[in-house]
Design goal:
The complex is a heterodimer of chains A (559) and B (311). With 559 residues, chain A is mainly α. Chain A contains 16 helices and no strands. The longest helix of chain A is centred in the first third of the chain and has 35 residues. Chain B is 36% helix and 20% strand. The chains are: A mainly alpha (559), B alpha+beta (311).
Amino acid sequence: MSVRAPTIAAPDGATVRTGVLARAHEWVVTVDHKRLGVMYVVAGLAFFLIAGLEAGVIRWQLAVAGNTVVSPQVFNRLFTVHGTTMIFLVGIPIVFGFANYLVPLMIGARDLAFPRLNAFGFWAFLFGGCLLYFSFLAGDGLYGAGSAPDVGWFAYAPLTGRAFSPGNSTDYWNLSILVMGFGTVATSINLITTTLTMRCRGMTLGRMPLYVWMMLVVAGMAVLAMPPLSAAQIMLLLDRFLGAHFFDTQAGGSAVMWQHFFWFFGHPEVYILMVPGFAMVSEIIPVFSRKVIFGYPMIVAASLAIGFLAMTVWAHHMFAVGMGAPLNSAFAASTMLIAIPTGIKIFNWVATMYGGRIRFATPMLFACAFLFQFLCAGLTGIILSVVPFNWQLTDSYFVVAHFHFVLVGALIFTVFGAIYYWFPKATGRLLSERLGRWHFWLFAVGFNLTFLPMHWLGMLGMPRRIYTYPAERGWDLWNLVATLGVPLQAAAIAVFLVNIATALRRGKPAGDDPWDAWTLEWTTTSPPPPYNFATAPVVESRRPLWDLKHPDDPDGPHE
Amino acid sequence: MFAPVSTPAFAIRELSILVFAIVIAIFVVVAALTVYAIVRYRRRPGDDGREPPQVYGSAQIELAWTVVPFLIVIVLFLTTARYIFAIEGRAPTPGALEVTIVGHQWWWEIRYPGLGVVTANELHVPVSDPARPTPTFLTLQSADVIHSFWIPQLAGKTDVIPGKTNRSWIDPRTPGVYVGQCAEFCGLQHAGMLLRAIVHPKEEFDRWVAAQRTMAADVPAAHAGRDVFTSLACINCHAVRGTPANGVFGPDLTHLMSRDTLGAGVAPNTRENLRAWVRDPAALKPGALMPAMQVSDEQLDGLVAYLVTLR
């Protein structure tokens, strides 16, 4: 995205080098938060395409009963790698990529606090991602041709033990997540430090944009949740290579302990991915409704509450494990409680729209779809927190539908909205609104066609992760409908890629502030210069650009 | 789950109606507000470009939409907790039928310790009269990886975990066949690990138990096949009571032909399927851990002729 390469490629007026290799070299050695942010997002989108292809094959195989498009082994690898990719190689890099790009700009800083650590985080992630996909070539090692992990993305012990998972595919899974975990912790520490120490003059904590507040919460959760996962991965490595018995049930290890470790990371992880979505719509909805966010302090409080509660709900993934009635009740309570701050946010977004003059540009279309789909996702989450009901629904397609509504219907939709919203800032070019609407409607219809019926399939008793099913179970129709949504989503993504490609070459110039927005990133040029701001900004309220545009009625007195 | 026949499943359906009522009400209210905001406050053609009034918040409104959800959560939690303790906390009634179910990659071993019966992939239980309940209590164990026991019409899932003993119970009120399958990914043939619960009237169940307790049938005409069976590695894994075969890694075959399906539900138990299965299990169930025994056609005929006598 170097349309105006000279502006961002020549730090401090150094001589501009041309040629593909020279420019590639500049991207490889960069420690600039904006370039790293763009690289995170681009790499995340590339992995998104790969994971989408994997999902397409999965849906093709399940379209009709008794299908034989792929063998059971290939099917198991596909859903394992699809899940791992979407969580670790799509979700995390995209949300942290956006934070990389936006947080310094929004707080009026020149870069993140530790630029080199930032570059380390990115390259650790990319290396981890390549490690996972390298397993397709080398996973079986000496055992023969290539393979890939086939133990599911949460890799329950003891299926991951040497006895049940020979070869090296599980080791590639293990090491890639270990490496990426280090990168994520590094970036999180960087974001926390930057936010706490590098805000421009006048920007108190209470005046930070909501996006920055929520990313602070996300980084805090990541710092707490990632190390236990890394610890578990190291224990698994010891089990597999040095004959330790942490998770080896044949030798007295505990299969349940893996689940506690994994979900102690895994559930905060859901919020690590979802709160950035909240953060993005908290910027988009006010700007396109032309109203200040409703209840700023309450949204900040709700975000902090989600951050704390998110650390206390992990075992709701384990209601069928046999933890006993008291523990099950406790985790049901914490899970239901987290619905309250989440609900508060939805109410505040709707209240922000209420009384506004809503402009339905593409970012706002995605934000509106987010509201409905996230409402569904939240309510199916409540359903799943009702433990006895959960005993029927867990590990069925109902859960598959639930978390795809969370991670696609809510997160991916907001990410698309955010790309349409901030692409002009990063490249200086506007994406086409016409193609944007095609992208939106195709994706919204395709997504719901695929994932709404899965709720029903789960209630009909279809377990997840089965490579086929017999016709007499009565699951054919809704599986076919679900598969029919796939071409629509694929078409939407194709439109999206065309939109980006044409906008990069001949999109309309965006100007500094195409959306008439209010946060600091829109005061600098598009794309911003390497030093971000020519003069250090000074702010007096939560919406510095509103104050600038409405000197007669600044925000300050109202806050 | 929509056609429950056993108390835990009935309770879950009952609870689900309450839960659905609550979440659908919330959905309708919130979605209606959102649609209203979107439609009513969309920018219309001829908009003068002025900014709408800026509303920064309202403590009363925030308080209202914090307290109301909190009250809903309290109601929901108390109801949920009551059902959790009623289902999970139920102590076994003395003299109730006890069954031990052992999950294997990829089949179910089913043992009746009090009755001396061992079978596979079919859980036979007596019907339970609500007036005089005769529930069945299940002990769940695993021989290898984690599985999950799930027959939706009888009860929710309970995981089957190596190194941990879990409990569940059912009291089906209607005779019939109820299909379930393993619900926790357990490797290559997770999809091919089906389970059938067969609920009998009381007398029929007693007859089934009596038949299962007998030794394997000894049909002289099948001795040739039996000798093939006992001379091959079949007996390393399979048991046939009354013969030297006493393996424990595969299903007990003493009354093989009393079962409806082969390979944990992947094919109906017919003579043709049985022949195909013995020739090469992977043809019916790719990845099945039973190897193809590389027997000649003649040996195969003998084996099948012997196996079909195991009624």
